[in-house]
Write a structure and sequence with these properties.
Length: 322
């Protein structure tokens, strides 16, 4: 009886132990599988969240670029009529600056959209909902590209117009410079002619007069006596080259009176008596009034009047005054 009992007990215990081991191993395997699944789910959710965050940041960047493009597009449109603050850049350079920046943003958007398309194909299916938005963005970018091409064509036309205008302005400036030079030369010639005419007229209208007793006028070599025989019938005349500095210089267009203020006097330079009259005061001649200047100064531009303040003074013609 003991031997039989011992034989049946040992296998049962081993079976129980084996069963326990199997159960524990199965539980461990289930736990490991569950833990791995949970980690995979967590990693997948984290990766999906990261991808969604990345996609959203890309879309935000794309939208920001599009907003900048719209702003630059408006600035380009305005720049055809107004000037923006780019220092010394000309209109065409400012427009090119904006277009270059728009093209850079378009290229950046294309790269980001291409990356999103690859992610949509390779990653979680939840990203498929963005495909329509990507397509819309491509359409909008293509529309902007068309606008950019249009602006480039307008810029080229504007540049051609500016080049033609610059050439016309340069030609006009050369013509204006030539005309100004001709005007300057003509003005100078005219000024010289006017100056020379005025100088000639002033010279032609210069006259000189001297008044004094005969001795003083003779000593100054203004007057001289010549002719006659043995001192008889000698006449008093103006010296051949009198010094103008010894005379009063006048302009015959302005001066119509010559002062005398003497009772005894005579003109020795031969002015025509019909070309003047006299102003008297207390039997004294105060003024010679020139009534016909052309006739008065026709014979000579020098007028010499000899006066006698004292009885001892000698008159030029050794006779009484008029």
């Amino acid at each position: 009886m003991r031997a039989f009992k011992s034989k049946t007990t040992i296998p049962l215990a081993a079976a129980i132990i084996i069963l326990l081991v199997i159960v524990i191993a199965a539980g461990a395997l289930v736990y490991i599988q569950y833990d791995s699944k949970m980690k995979y789910i967590a990693a997948t959710e984290q990766s999906t969240a990261a991808k969604e965050s990345y996609v959203m940041s890309v879309f935000d960047r794309i939208e920001a670029n599009l907003a900048t493009i719209r702003e630059k597009e408006a600035m380009i449109s305005q720049d055809f009529n107004t000037q923006d603050n780019y220092g010394d850049l000309g209109p065409e350079e400012r427009i090119q600056h904006e277009i270059d920046y728009i093209e850079y943003l378009l290229e950046e958007n294309n790269r980001m959209i291409a990356s999103l398309n690859q992610d949509v194909k390779d990653k979680d299916a939840r990203l498929n909902e963005y495909s329509n938005t990507v397509i819309d963005l491509k359409a909008r970018i293509n529309e902007y590209q068309v606008n950019v091409d249009k602006l480039l064509a307008e810029k080229a036309a504007l540049q051609t117009y500016l080049d033609e205008t610059t050439a016309d302005r340069r030609m006009l400036k050369e013509q204006v410079d030539t005309l100004n030079n001709e005007i300057a030369r003509t003005s100078q010639d005219l000024s010289d002619q006017i100056r020379m005419t005025i100088e000639r007229e002033n010279e032609l209208n210069k006259a000189f007069y001297a008044i004094g007793v005969y001795k003083d006028l003779r000593d100054k070599e203004i007057l001289q006596k010549e002719g006659g025989f043995l001192g008889i019938n000698r006449v008093t005349t103006l010296t051949e080259s009198p010094d103008p500095e010894l005379f009063h210089e006048i302009d015959i267009r302005d001066v119509k009176q010559i002062p005398i203020y003497a009772k005894h006097w005579e003109i020795v330079t031969g002015q025509d008596p019909d070309s003047y009259d006299l102003s008297y005061d207390n039997n004294q001649v105060n003024w010679i009034n020139i009534t016909n200047p052309e006739k008065f100064w026709n014979k000579t531009k020098y007028l010499v009047i000899v006066i006698r303040d004292k009885d001892s003074d000698e008159l030029a013609l050794t006779r009484d005054s008029k």
